[in-house]
Fold:
Amino acid sequence: MAGGTNPPEPGAERADFVAPDAAVDTEAVDWVLRTTRSVRRRIDWDRPVDPALIESAIDSAVQAPTGVGGERWRFLVLTDPAPKAAVAGLYRKSLAAWRAARPDGADGPKATVVTHAERLGEMPALILVCSEGEPDPASRALQVAFFGSVLPAAWSLMLALRARGLGATWTTLHLLQEQEAARALGIPDGVTQTVLLPVGHTLGARLRPAVRRPAREVTYWNRWGALRDPTRADSRTPPRGPRPDGAD
Ligand SMILES: Cc1cc2nc3c(=O)[nH]c(=O)nc-3n(C[C@H](O)[C@H](O)[C@H](O)COP(=O)(O)O)c2cc1C
Structure:
């Protein structure tokens, strides 16, 4: 934290801490934003994750925006072998169903996705990000508000984990078995599961920016489709496709 001012402990008087203007290390923050990638293999499998480290990451994550009736996020952290194995089994079942539903000849999952699924129960921690309540099936606006009140915290959590030397992967496959997962984990009716983050300390992970189209190509100004400088569109767009050297 620049300026020598530390943030307060969670729960401390909020008025005590006012971030000074421009007190952010932009380079460090951007580096985390640009290099938070899936880490599926390069995990220190034998090193447990300190629960206090996870809680500290969650304390940062819950600074995310939250809508009306907010803070309905709940984080279910699995570290015991039995619940991890239960969710890992459901995840693999989902992966098998997903593969079976693919048309003949369609690309299958990446090899790292398959090995990740096989070793999911060995991950030091699985964090299931949930929200109390359910999205309104009839209203897109309310669905956006519902998921928009929990997923920013989930992504902040990935960033906060990365900033603590922990790797994770944004996964949703187990949701194909959401009811079974709820039963296995004691999640009551009326609670919606969102992403599952398998987490561990990274070991030799090569985290680097992904190839993405630049802002100037995906940003419109004042009217849909209007680029700020059309002459520069896609002039330097890097080739799309798989990364030459996966980080995970
Ligand atoms: C909505 C969503 C759901 C995803 N679900 C899974 C999943 O269940 N399992 C998985 O291995 N990757 C899943 N992914 C892909 C990874 O999270 C990741 O984005 C992808 O592998 C690209 O790698 P990178 O984040 O390192 O660039 C999902 C991504 C998104 C955006």
